[in-house]
Amino acid sequence: MHMYDALLSPVVGGIMTVTSGTAISYSAKKIAGDRLDEKKIPMMGVMGAFVFAAQMINFTIPGTGSSGHIGGGILLAALLGPFPAFLTLASVLLIQCLLFADGGLLAYGCNVFNLGVCTCLFAFTLIYKPIVKRGMNKKNIIIASVASVILGLQAGAFCVVLETTASGVTELPFQAFALLMQPIHLAIGLIEGLVTAAVLCFIYNLRPEILKSAVSGVKMLGNVSLKRVLVTFLIATVFLGGVLSLFASAFPDGLEWALERVAGEEEPGRESTVHDVANQIVDSTAQMPDYTFEDDTDATTLGTATAGIVGSAVTIVLAMGVGFFIHRVKKRSKD
Amino acid sequence: MKMINLYKANAGISQLEQFAAGDSPVHRLHPMSKLITSILYITVVISFPSQNVSGLMAFLFYPAILLPLSGVPYKPLLKKLLLALPFSLLGGISNVILMKGTAFTIGSFAVSLGMVSFASIMLKTCLTVTALLLLIATTPFIEISRQLAALHIPKILCMQLVMTYRYISVLLDEAVSMFTAYTLRTKEQKGIQMKDMGSFLGTLILRSFDRADRIYQAMKCRGFQNVYDVKKKIEFNLYDCLYAVLGSLILLMLRFFDLSVFWVGLLGIIGG
Prior knowledge:
- The complex is a heterodimer of chains A (335) and B (272).
- By secondary structure, chain A is an all-alpha fold.
- Chain A has helices at 10-33, 40-54, 73-80, 82-100, 108-133, 138-167, 174-206, 208-216, 226-250, 254-266, 268-286, 299-334, and strands at 59-60, 67-68.
- Chain A contains twelve helices and two strands; from the N terminus they run H-H-E-E-H-H-H-H-H-H-H-H-H-H.
- Chain B has a two-stranded antiparallel sheet.
- The radius of gyration of chain B is 24 Å and the shape is globular.
């Protein structure tokens, strides 16, 4: 369920990076304020590696012949508490992005939000914790983990749909995409929830104190209520999403628009001459006689299209040529 | 057979580590200047509208120059790139189906808007993933996390990154040996049965907890005091500055200036 760079617009990527960045720094402050015993640092590191390994352990789903693996957000939160778990997951996602090209650097913010904030912070605090706090027993652990895993995945999948649609890179219609994503993730969530429940019950049998400390270990500092923070988060996200999608449609290319304004105001003289020369050359191509076709009205677009194809081919050949040249020079200097 | 994943992940990490330990002009660049240009490169590539493929082509120069300069073999990177394609492929194919308008025709063959945007999405995927792989294949992971700390990313996250990264191979090994033990005791099973997952992962968790305890004690013995060590600083020299500034300028220029169209214009002018 990773988001990828290529399906994102810079605006959506930027907003999600800021949102997730805020969540990360909030969690980091929370932990630092907790005077988190230093013991949790190696614990978080090793558990991050555990999630990494756990995501690669496939199990067979009975009756279907297919296999699945866990995402681990709720599991981590139930073992470490929401904030350490969230930071752990954030680091796992960054490593996956860098080492396995899962997601992307610009999509990192989206992935942290969809897979981290939705599970460790939202689903855990809103569902898992209240249920388990009523009484730590196997029944409650099972109900809490299944429900929170399902909710976390549903929220995450919905965010993927929202981010993809808001980016506008693909033409996937919002409704159809949502109708495809939500039911699939309901099934995945049920399976993952059951496995998470089984793991937590196993831990509960052997080391119940781990699960207890994760639920009770989150002391609120000062008068910051987590619920208020979460609600503010939610409102801010919806608001930003709405406003920015309007912005995005009014200025189809927000970055270009912003950059042009910045460049135009700072150095009008130099910018415009370079731009003019470039424009002249581009203009001369679009209207070159070679590229006009019988139908005059289509001439310009056709001309640009052909110019685009021919030019692209030239660029590819040149890029490969440069690469090959460097390769040869390096090889020769080695010999 | 499912466990091949685990072996592969382990091998993949150590392979990238070997690449990053190499020596080349690209390796020698300051990690910060590489990090900045990589992020800018990805942002600029992503910012291209989906109908503009020719403008994107100019960004091929980045991997075309850096890859041979760094001396990183291209085949393993290509393999990693292939693994990243499927999800974008899904998005791209939906565009081919859903966008009906004709972009242009070549002879009697009509190229639809969907096909153009499909090409754009796939090209963007290749470029962004390659840029990321190039960064990690020429920069040791610990250096990247040091730069993140320098950029005021919370230290606990940076510390967390380094520790997780360090222990991935340890835990993967642990998981592999547990899996081997499991398969030796079961008959003709591809993966782990779902009903056994609870105790399998649970055992792995408890082992991880114990390991974390031992690591903590070892860290304490060596004077760990909850401070992230940023002592080792690499000097930012003139080349690093030049690379970052010139690289950024060229990238921004290519965003607004279609090199591919420029060639054709140049040919046109030369041809009279």
